[in-house]
Design goal:
Length: 193
């Protein structure tokens, strides 16, 4: 006879296997590295914040090559009124416009219903495949991401340093502050019984 814990574990395993099978089935239709896709003006509008849209963004429409796909972005989401729910990772696509060096797009190809935090383009299919150039593009874009991260980190540290130097405590040693106080740790009486 199975205990309640064993029955619960068996149910969780079965639920996990069903979810895993559904995810694998869904992944069959997802974009892969090397796929070539067409992003229309409507797709680009979804990726750009509406208040920032300009006609220059329309020039970004065209064929893109997928250089990186990941499952990420999941976690606990607040759907309002303190109603926190678990959202699974979604399929994120990163691509670069063909014959350009710096026009890139990042979006989710899947999404959890109700989650509007990330731009998503659903139902997008590959129109071609380029097995040769996507790896070189991926290496270049990875270096650019690292460079951008290092630059953001450098600016953050410079800003923090400037804020510290502008503070009234800049140059004041904690030792000299303790020595100049009227009572120090040594002079203060011990608490009595």
């Amino acid at each position: 006879m199975k205990s309640a814990i064993d029955r619960r574990l068996a149910k969780q395993r079965a639920d996990f296997e069903v979810a895993q099978a559904a995810r694998e089935e869904e992944a069959k239709g997802l974009l892969k590295e090397g796929d070539i896709i067409d992003l229309s003006v409507d797709h680009i509008k979804r990726l750009v914040n509406g208040s920032e849209w300009t006609e220059a963004h329309a020039k970004r429409a065209g064929q893109y090559i997928v250089y990186k796909t990941t499952f990420e972005g999941g976690g606990m989401e607040d759907f309002g009124h303190g109603d926190w729910s678990y959202c699974p990772d979604q399929h994120r696509v990163q691509c670069r416009k063909l014959n350009t060096e710096d026009v890139c797009a990042k979006f989710y190809q899947t999404t959890t219903a109700g989650v509007g935090l990330h731009p998503a383009i659903l139902g997008l299919k590959a129109v071609g495949r380029d097995e040769d150039s996507w790896e070189a593009i991926a290496r270049v874009e990875e270096v650019r991401e690292v460079d951008a991260w290092l630059e953001r980190d450098r600016k953050k540290k410079a800003r923090e340093r400037a804020e510290y130097e502008a503070s009234p405590f800049y140059g004041v040693s904690m030792i000299s502050t303790a020595e100049s106080s009227q009572t120090s740790m040594v002079d203060s009486p011990l608490p009595g019984p």
